[in-house]
Specification:
The complex is a heterodimer of chains A (171) and B (309). Chain A is mostly helical and 171 residues long. Chain A has eight helices and no strands. Among the domains of chain B are: 76 residues; 80 residues, Beta Barrel (Thrombin, subunit H), CATH 2.40.10. In chain B, a hairpin with a 3-residue loop joins β6 and β7. The N and C termini of chain B lie far apart (75 Å). Classes of the chains: A mainly alpha (171), B alpha+beta (309). Chains A and B meet through α1, α2, α4, α5 and α6 of A and α1, α2 and β1 of B.
Amino acid sequence: MRWGILIAILFISYILEGTVVQVFSTNAWEGSFYVLPRFVLVLLVFISLYIGRRRAFLLGVIFGLFFDIQYSDVIGVYAFSLAIIPYLSALAYQYFQLNVFLIILTVFFSVYIQECVIFYLYRLFGLADVPFHWLTHLPTAAFNAFFAIVVYFPLTKYLEKWAHGRDEEVI
Amino acid sequence: MSNFFFKRRLLALLVSLIVLVTIVGMTVKDRPIPTWPERIIRDTFAFTEGLIYKPAVAIAGFFESIQDIYQVFEENKALKQNLQQFTQVTAELNELKLENEQFRKLLEAKQSKLSDYQLKLAEVVARSPDRWNHTLIIDRGAKDGIQPNMAVITPEGYIGRIQSVSNHSAQVELVTDIERGNHISAIVQSSEPVYGVVEGYDPKNHWLIMRKIPLQAEIAEKQLVVTSGLGGTIPRGLILGEVVSVKTDEQFLTKDAYIRPNANLNLLEKVFVVERSFVPPTEIPIPNSVPGSTTPNGVEGELQGGSTS
């Protein structure tokens, strides 16, 4: 049941990324800078921090495959990045006490790193020819950190109910 | 103990990297018709996303129309003037059409098949959230007669082509993703048609780049660029955009023209898939080079048949 609700939330945010957010960011395709929604990644970082990084890894693979299959012909890039990044972000924080500031910072860096990882993977396989600039993805990371602030309190309240799963996995 | 886990983690990372590279390598080529699990996932998501995209577009359109109310008066004036011009242009067009038909009859020339096409309405259900896949998902698929590489347009002009087809949905590769081999043969409507190939995109200015234009061709700004209908599944006469600037390319052998796309790619709701009436053969029969075999006659016949049609 708990997992059902969580997976439903992930599905809804996945669908929102492709539909509603695309409609309302109308000038996103022609502006000088752009903001991309990465709600699934944000939620996966939360899950990884509160419930367990291995489950987040598994969910990351599944939702990454959805991204790959639906939006591109190449399978693997999103599955890899959505699985690895929440996993590593949990590893980085297993010795710290979780607090708002650290989590928001983690989300910020996770989103930024994911953008870079995806870009370089696509470039590795010759699918992205755009020159890379490190400033381009800062608005995206900031926007998703803001999204993390918005969902922080309801989500952490919900996740802390079964947060002891995290203690089991800490080595 | 922790050292052991660290090693295992590193191993897992390396293994997943290898898996990534193999899977990407297997799927990186153009696959117009994906495997069945992919098709099921795509169709399911396309259906659910269709339920959400339409109301979202409606709400966004409502806000846009509130903005528009302030400009209605001015716009109305301009439109009325345009309308008067429009009637005149239609009259001229009809006359020209009649004239054209008469001349064709006199010359006994056949109607050109290059520009014949039918349109199929499709609704956009989703759009890729990232910047590297310029993909649209539409709610029509193979069951509705859509095939890979068909052109996709809006009333304003060409926006892309069908990249891959599932049963009830299809992926559209937008014209902005043109670097990946989705090249379009095009004409600049100058005093005489100037042929070239649209094969690049300038992400800074959001212009298309048309290359391989002959050096002596005279093209100027604001001339329209349309598809040429030569080869492929794109018919003649779909509007691509207008010329913004012209340059000689690096080797001083041909010209490059920069084209501002006519279609607005921002808020897409309904698109048309263009089904061409005349599809040229995709594979040109290659004559068998082995002398003395029985095949050359047959191949020659095929070639002749191809050239006359």
